[in-house]
Amino acid sequence: MALFAILLAAAAAAPFQIDLRPGETLEARVDGDLDGDGMADTAWLIGREDKRRLNVYLTDGGAEALDLETTPLGPGELSIRNGALLFHDLTGGTTAIDSTRRYRYDKANIRMRLIGYDASLYSRTEQHDGFEVSWNLLTGAAIVRKLHLNTSGKGDALYDHVYEHKVTKRSPTVWLWKTPTPEDVIARFQGG
């Protein structure tokens, strides 16, 4: 019995092997306990010229993936904070969207659930106003900011926060593989 426990502990400590195909690059990886079983789960972000994918492997047997847009302005970032997986990404071109998606493990469904979404649309060339939303999908509560381009010539800030309001937009459960794009989240809140 003691030998079995030692072998189990050794297997849990072994890092998950990520196999890359030709043309793929590993943008980010994080290991930590997401499913609450005391063993390290793994999340990683793979990029290639025609697609990107966020992958999650849970030691309890769950595995999920999310296909992403292919216009990153740099590699994505992954971290684990308070048992939640955070995925930070910057995409676009001269108009960019900086986004952070937060996921938490749902034990009953053996899946990662989207619980929070922050998205900020802005002009990298100082050409237009911006927009931000911070949305808690568990409660529906969101903070929305319409950002006015700073044309006063005063200060270094690109935008002045001119309008902020709180809204509630409920959502059905959203699993990792069904996560909306940052553009879709911004469009959902820009109308009011």
Low-confidence stretches: 1-12
Q: What is the overall shape?
A: globular
* Main sheet: strands, sense, barrel: 7 strands, antiparallel
Number of helical segments with 4 or more residues = 2
Describe the strand arrangement of the main beta sheet, using strand numbers.
5-6-7-8-9-10-11
Helix percentage range: 10-25%
Task: Classify the secondary structure makeup into a structural class.
Answer: mainly beta
Q: Can you put this structure into words, describing what you see?
A:
It is a single chain. The chain has a domain at 72-190. The chain is 11% helix and 48% strand. The chain has two helices and eleven strands; from the N terminus they run αβββββββββββα. The strands form two sheets. The protein has a seven-stranded antiparallel sheet, covered by helices on one side. Strands 1-2-3-4 form a four-stranded antiparallel sheet, with no helix packed on it. A hairpin with a 2-residue loop joins β6 (84-92) and β7 (95-106).
Provide a quick synopsis of the model.
This protein is mainly beta. The chain is 11% helix and 48% strand. A 7-stranded antiparallel sheet has the order 5-6-7-8-9-10-11, with helices on one face. The chain has a 4-stranded antiparallel sheet with strand order 1-2-3-4, with no helix packed on it.
